[in-house]
Design goal:
The complex is a heterodimer of chains A (243) and B (346). Chain A has 243 residues and is α/β, with parallel strands linked by helices. Chain A has one domain: Rossmann fold. The model of chain B has no long low-confidence stretch (mean pLDDT 89). Chain B has a two-stranded antiparallel ribbon with strand order 1-2. Chain B has one domain. Chain B has 346 residues and is mostly helical. In chain B, a hairpin with a 2-residue loop joins strand 1 and strand 2. The chains are: A alpha/beta (243), B mainly alpha (346). Chains A and B meet through helix 2, helix 3 and helix 6 of A and helix 8 and helix 9 of B.
């Protein structure tokens, strides 16, 4: 299995405070990898830095390309896509416009098939295609954010807390779709606080604590790890039952 | 006051208001996309008007040399900022835009200039010159500081205004200029006489508003510009270059400014510093529109034009005071209506 994304010894600092220290990870093709960890562990920071939103020290390559000289816009064109924690939708534009803009770097003919695919994955978005993005419910906004990212035909989709603030039934829906993406040939790097759900669909997992990876391995091994179970899986009372 | 005078004043106000509407729309557009309050909009007006007027007399305006000089600086900046990752395609694109385009324009101006050049050619040349200046102005003055606060951008904007105004004095001199009318036709309707010029003002204003509406509503580039205005990070995450959006916004604003200037200069004598006052009236309309609403801005601009026409009839000494006072109740109302928000540190 060849690595699609390789991150080597990455440090990310906010001013003098290092939020991420010496982290290395890789994501292969057709693989779902999850990073779990508590609030403030540096998971979001890491994803943002891989995307180019934040500066980092260290080395990242994606699809064999060194990411260092590339801006966010150019990284998107290489097939890397981020669905950020706050979704960053175009709130005053309708669903279809949001999706069309997701295919900004893609040829028009390809975009049309992408749109069909997104509507098949998220039928709810098709129903609401003329509605303004800002007026959608939280779950629909998350779907739209994922749909918009998929419109760019990414090779790797990075999802930042897709379950945040959503009803359990919608969370289950979203995780089911993440599983479908792998079948469609899209790799996923998933950052989640909902460790239980994330470990169920992931192939491999990294556990992050205070800016460092403390554990990594196949997802089922991580899920079986006693320390992880005590720290991250024990506190999942609300989300757990539905999944 | 009789109805005829009132109708005259209304007509005058609407004609001026249409120009202010164009400028106000450009201001809203630039602010939405780049967060820059475009004080140098007035200079685009003067540069367009006076370049056109000079071309009409067969002279080469200094603005075209300014465009070349700014292009060279923009090229140097492109190279400097990309020095760590220079590739041939980037350099070629930069050469094409910043060097070839302004020099070609310079050549074109020297080749075509003359006392008998058709009006349409002169207009096209003046528009191209100002478009180039607008484009390079963004590259040089605003793109390097695009991530800073609105206040920093505003100060830079004031600096650009002062610099361009000073250069305007060098290029055009302290004497005012007038340009030839676009058309000498006239239509009479009752007591009112519509000159071809004022009809052109209406037609172009409506054309531009419809054009902008179509552009923003139906084209990919237009939607990308809106997306940049709504959510910068979101736009970057789908691969929209915010620098390109900024350039397009400045390009549109400078062309709109220049067109306004070319529309005014056959009606009134313009001086190198007249544009500022005209731009400010567009600014008032834009503020009444909250710097976000295009339709409200257009309506407010017509109102500004009408208030100006009536106040210059009744109290011409206080004309500007009355017009600019319009902004006070709006600001008070808006500050009461909108909760205070901390500016994003994006």
């Amino acid at each position: 299995m060849s690595a699609l994304l390789t991150v080597t010894d990455v440090h990310i600092a906010y001013g003098k405070v290092e939020a991420v220290r010496g982290v290395s990870l890789d994501v292969g093709e057709n693989e779902i990898v999850t990073i779990i960890g508590a609030n403030g562990a540096g998971k979001t920071t890491l994803l943002n830095a891989i995307m180019g939103v934040l500066p980092l020290r260290g080395r990242t390559t994606f699809a064999g390309i060194d990411m260092a000289p590339l801006d966010i816009e150019d990284r998107v064109a290489t097939g890397l896509s981020l669905v950020p924690e706050h979704r960053e939708l175009f709130g005053t534009m309708n669903v279809e416009d949001n999706l069309e803009l997701g295919a900004f770097r893609i040829a028009k003919a390809v975009a049309a098939t992408s749109l069909e695919r997104v509507y098949t994955l998220f039928p709810r978005l098709k129903e609401r295609r003329k509605q303004l993005a800002g007026t959608l419910s939280g779950g629909e906004q998350q779907m739209l954010a994922m749909g918009r990212a998929l419109m760019g035909a990414p090779k790797l989709l990075m999802l930042d807390e897709p379950s945040l603030g959503l009803a359990p039934i919608i969370v289950a829906d979203i995780f089911r779709i993440v599983g479908e993406l792998r079948a469609a040939g899209v790799s996923v790097l998933l950052v989640e606080q909902n460790a239980q759900a994330a470990l169920q669909i992931a192939d491999r997992a990294y556990v992050m604590e205070l800016g460092e990876f403390v554990l990594s391995g196949p997802a089922h091994e991580i899920a079986a790890n006693k320390g992880v179970a005590a720290s991250y899986l024990g506190f999942q009372h609300e989300g757990e039952s539905a999944i | 006051m009789n109805t005829t005078i009132m109708l005259f004043l209304l007509q005058d106000g609407i004609t001026n208001g249409a120009i202010y509407a164009l400028l106000g729309l450009a201001l809203v557009l630039v602010f939405a996309v780049t967060r820059v309050i475009l004080i140098p909009q007035g200079e685009f007006v003067t540069y367009g008007a006076l370049s056109y007027a000079m071309l009409a007399t067969g002279q080469v305006p200094g603005t075209v040399r300014l465009a070349v000089a700014m292009g060279i600086v923009a090229f140097a900046l492109d190279l400097f900022f990309a020095r760590k990752a220079l590739h041939a395609r980037l350099v070629m694109r930069s050469v094409g835009l910043n060097i070839v385009f302004p020099f070609a324009l310079l050549g074109l101006v020297y080749a075509l200039v003359g006392p008998h050049t058709p009006i349409a050619v002169n207009i096209a040349l003046a528009l191209l010159i100002v478009a180039a200046i607008g484009l390079f102005l963004y590259r040089i003055a605003f793109q390097p500081i695009a991530h800073t606060s609105v206040l920093v951008l505003l100060i830079a904007s004031v600096g650009c205004h002062l610099a361009l105004q000073g250069l305007g004095l060098v290029f055009f001199g302290a004497e005012g200029l007038r340009g030839p009318a676009l058309s000498s036709a006239a239509v009479t309707a009752g007591p009112l006489r519509f000159t071809g010029q004022s009809l052109a003002v209406y037609a172009l204003t409506i054309g531009f508003i419809v054009g902008l509406w179509l552009f923003f509503g139906y084209t990919k580039t237009g939607k990308a510009l809106r997306a940049t205005a709504v959510n910068r990070l979101g736009a970057r995450l789908v691969g929209i270059r915010t620098t390109l959006s900024g350039q397009i916004a400045f390009l549109l604003a400078s062309v709109i400014g220049a067109i306004s200037g070319i529309l005014i200069v056959p009606i009134t004598t313009l001086y190198y510093d007249t544009g500022f006052l005209i731009g400010l009236k567009g600014f008032i309309a834009a503020i009444i529109g909250g710097l976000v609403s295009y339709p409200l801005t257009a309506v407010a601009a017509i109102l500004v034009g009408i208030v100006e026409a009536f106040s210059s009839f009744y109290a011409s000494n206080f004309k500007e005071v009355i017009v600019f006072t319009l902004i006070l109740p709006v600001l008070v109302l808006r500050s009461l209506a909108a909760p205070q928000v901390e500016e994003e540190k994006d």
